[in-house]
Amino acid sequence: MFTPTDCCPDNPYLRNDRVIFFDFEGATTRHALLDAAYVLAPFPTCWCTSRLPDGVSERLLAAYREHFPGRLDFDEQLTLALAALVLFTLSSHWPGNWEHEDQTWGLVTVRQRHLFRLQNLLARANLATLLPCLAGVADDLYRTLNARWPDLDPMPLYPAFRPGPYRAVSATGDQ
Q1: Is residue 113 part of a domain?
Q2: Residue range 144-165: average pLDDT?
Q3: Is 170 a domain residue?
Q4: Average pLDDT for residues 82-104, to the nearest whole number?
Q5: Phi/psi at 28 (5° precision)
């Protein structure tokens, strides 16, 4: 399927009951569930990564599930796609120094991103059944990193979902 590959919340436009994507610099043909997993990763290629409010991810995934072909197990395939994105993002940042000195990219830090992604992967009920070795490694890594950084703030909500007046944020994080 042709997908935009970057469906973070600042790239679509909502018109009535339709979502219109307008950011296609990375668009390609690939499995649509990678876009669904993008919601849980969350948004690994986006500078403005933040957390969606409770319930929003579930609503987005329900919309994906509604259009997913019935011959494949949606939850199984979603867990596999999410595992691939988490492994990709961890491996792409590992050569850096983020485990010793946190780095901010956009609105949140690299550490916040990794811990939140691992947490979302570990929350998948079928992870231990599908990928038992990866589930064990992810759990160990999450516990180790979480213990190493006890003062790390949780990932904040996207600015548009925060209380108070919405303020635009630039790619550098300036308000």
Answers
A1: yes
A2: 87
A3: no
A4: 84
A5: -160, 175
